[in-house]
Amino acid sequence: MSHTPQKHRVRRIVFITIGAVAGVLGLGLGAILIVGGVFVPATYLQPWNVTYYQQSTDARMQVVAHAVLAPSGHNMQPWNVVLDTADASVLYLYADPSRLTPAVDPDSRQTVVSQGAFLAYLRVAAEELGYSASFELFPDGSYDETDLKKSMSQRPVARVTLAKDPSVATEDYSSLFISDTNRAPYTAAPLTRAQTEALTALADNSAARLSILSDKQDMTTLGAFGVEGTLIETQYPAATAESAAVFHGTEQAKNEARSGFAVEGQGTTGFKKYFLQGLITAFPALNDDTAGARNAIALTDAGVHNTAAYGLISTPANTRTEQVEAGILYAQFSLHARTLGLVMQPLSQVLQEYPTMAVPYAAIHAEYAPEGQTIQMLVRVGTPTIEYPVSMRRDVTSLLRTP
């Protein structure tokens, strides 16, 4: 009994110590979450709202407000739009030369493919709103490749004409609002025959070709190409520097940039997203090139071992028009796959045209494009295990350019 007061004092000291440690940890966690932007409104996600397009009464801007959700290389969203002042049914799509990624896309092929993706999304939106959308590609002629940036600014990729058409319809409108890329492992379920036939039929009226491959040898070969391409890209200093320059680690930075990469690309959501953003802001070494490479390779490796099939999109040659057509087909493929309950992830690093990628680039073309075709896209396809978060999108008005 004589020791009871001393025991109580010891217990109080222990409880006070635990409480103090917990308080410090709580304050630290709170600080990290605040740095990560837990209280910052995510304005960069506004275009994903299904009513976002209604801010404009101009049908052209309404369809463009949907098209900004399209996928693009490095999520750069390299699109400019000019509204025809003489014809309220016409708009012009231009590539934005200020949003190129020359390290991984030295020929701007992916940028032009991204133009096609924009057009495919625009057409689906138009059909949902009761319009047909017709495209005249490169109405002023193709680019002057000797002065590409200037030519991109001067020559439109497409002249788009909208026409009221009550007969048009689309199955894929709701798929516009689902993330175009899912890097998570997929289930073991194979694509059904009906799914495969519905997807391959999308290429029937395209200048591009779509192949869906799922036999064991193709799965092994294409999976290996996916991993090799990722490994090479992570070891290419110009590519890693380019990616780092467009990575945005806080909500504030994402609201300002509204394009490029963020932690959502790894599937990170909720409080974990804010925590991770706070950590890499406070301790940048956690997201250095080594850590980024390790993450990218691990994600790709897990992905290729958990997928049902691969899709290859190719064109007879590699003209700018064919690149746009490949982008249209890719976006149609991606959208309709989501309508059918499937998801996909591009693994197109192996198709990039810089020197250190030359050997696997030649190898995949020798294997899958032996008659001189150009493979424009390589994707993995399957049934999702998780819903992937959507990524940053520009405000639609930022795409507008004066004539």
UniProtKB/TrEMBL annotation:
This is Nitroreductase domain-containing protein. Keywords: Membrane, Transmembrane, Transmembrane helix. Gene3D superfamilies: NADH Oxidase (3.40.109.10). It comes from Cryobacterium adonitolivorans. GO terms for molecular function: oxidoreductase activity. The chain crosses the membrane at residues 12-40. InterPro entries: Nitroreductase-like, Nitroreductase_HadB/RutE.
